[in-house]
Structures are given as C-alpha cells and as structure tokens.
Amino acid sequence: MSFDEDFNKCVNYINKSEKINIDNDTKLFFYGHYKQATIGDCNIDKPTGLFNISNKLKYEAWNNLKGLSKDEAKKKYVEKFRKIINIEL
C-alpha cells in the first residue's frame, strides 16, 4: 500500500469516526498536518477578532508547518494516527 493510500485511509477514519477521544492539541496536529499535506504552506491571512480563538488556533497549527513538504506532512500524520489509534486500516 502506498503512503498516499495510508494517509487517505487515516483521514477517512478520523472524518467518519464520531467517538474518537483525542485532546484538542492532537486535533490541531491532525488539522495542521492535513492542510499542509493537501494544500502546502498556509495561504490565508491570520484570523482577527477577540472571539475567533478556534480559527486562530487552526491557523497557527497550519502556519507553524510552513516549509514542511506535503509528503513529510502525510508521513507525520500517519505516524501520529498509528501511535494514538491502535487499529489496522
């Protein structure tokens, strides 16, 4: 199985699972690495506004990965998935 297939299976599992018990930092890890793996470097402006905390955290999770290749982002996503979610896909 190719690394792209592994990545896609992990993403699909997370998207379809309603009861994954992971903390917010891990969710942000997956979000940032997903965006980096599928789009590349962050291409949006930093969100503004006092009550826009969620979008600011997502932005930071993605923007902090600037320069990381798409393949490396996929690799780290899959490695983290395998580490915390103990199933065979």
Taking all Cα atoms into account, the compactness measure Rg is 13 Å
Number of domains: 1
Assign the CATH architecture. Up-down Bundle
In this structure, how is the largest beta sheet organized? none
Mean pLDDT: 92
Fraction in helix = 55-70%
Low-confidence spans: none
Number of strands: 0
* Overall form: globular
Question: What's this model, at a glance?
Answer:
The chain is about 60% helix and about 0% strand.
Characterise this structure.
This protein is an all-alpha fold. It has one domain: Acyl-CoA Binding Protein (Up-down Bundle). 62% of the residues lie in helices and 0% in strands. The protein has 4 helices and no strands. It has helices spanning 3-16, 24-38, 53-63, 70-84. Helix 1 crosses helix 4 and helix 2 (24-38) packs antiparallel against helix 4. The longest helix has 15 residues, at 24-38. The mean pLDDT is 92.
